[in-house]
Amino acid sequence: GRGAGPAGMRLAAGVRERVAAVHGGAELSERLRLYDSWAACYEQDVAALEYRAPHLAAASLAFAFPAPPAGARLLDVACGTGLVARELHRRGFRCLHGVDGSAGMLERARSTGLYRQLRRCVLGREPLPAPAEHYDAVTVVGALGEGQVPSTAVPELLRVTKPGGFLCLTTRSNPSNLRYKAELEAALEGLERQGAWQKVLAQEVECWEKATSEEESTQGTGYIPGVVYIYRKCPVPRPGEG
């Protein structure tokens, strides 16, 4: 198609630079500033990238969820502009709380009207602003990656989840994130061995989003792969309890 020509590349140049910047080696404070300034064009950029993670994560969580979701309290970690909330809302989730490290992103999320509560929190640096066993579900979509939320923050996600509650996590499987992904999976498996949670799903997805460089594109498709994980916190309540 014609879109793949120079015009397509021109459109992508700014997108490529912004994505590279937030995934680069910048200090956290600098990266949060980049997210603040990216907030205004973030949604059109991820649309250009055909970023499918919010849709895939919400669909997976809704599929795993046993109860009608309307009454479930859910925490959307690194909520950004509210892309995940929009997908969850479409699937019947109504009680949504969000946290993000970027004030600019939170402002956009607030304007969607989809969240009952929004707080600023830099996960990895500070605890989540929630009591223990508070949420029926916790999502972290797109923020588990090199230079973003460290894999050491996973127990903090578990802390705020109710026993029997669900955690939905995503990461990318592109070459520059493989070391992080291995670390993350070691942390996930370690918690499973300890009996902290049970794996419900690990779904590898070939076309997660468009690659922003040739090196990142696997099998020359122009896309990078990703994965959705769903875990259920133990002890899982028996039918008739809870």
Keywords:
single chain, 242 residues, Rossmann fold, seven-stranded mixed sheet, alpha/beta, 7 strands
Molecular structure report:
The chain has 242 residues and is of the alpha/beta class. The protein has one domain: 3-Layer(aba) Sandwich (Rossmann fold). The protein has seven helices and seven strands; from the N terminus they run αααβαβαββαβαββ. A seven-stranded mixed sheet has the order 3-2-1-4-5-7-6, with helices on both faces. Strand 1, helix 4 and strand 2 (95-100) form a beta-alpha-beta unit. The longest helix has 21 residues, at 28-48. It is globular, with a radius of gyration of 18 Å.
Question: How are the elements arranged and paired?
Answer:
Layout: H1 6-23, H2 28-48, H3 53-64, E1 73-77, H4 83-90, E2 95-100, H5 103-112, E3 117-120, E4 135-140, H6 154-159, E5 161-172, H7 178-193, E6 197-210, E7 223-233
Parallel strand pairs: 1-2, 1-4, 2-3, 4-5
Antiparallel strand pairs: 5-7, 6-7
Helix pairs in contact: 1-2, 2-5, 3-4
Domain Methyltransferase type: 75-168
Organism: Podargus strigoides
GO molecular function, one term: S-adenosylmethionine-dependent methyltransferase activity
Brief summary of the model shown:
The chain is α/β, with parallel strands linked by helices and 242 residues long.
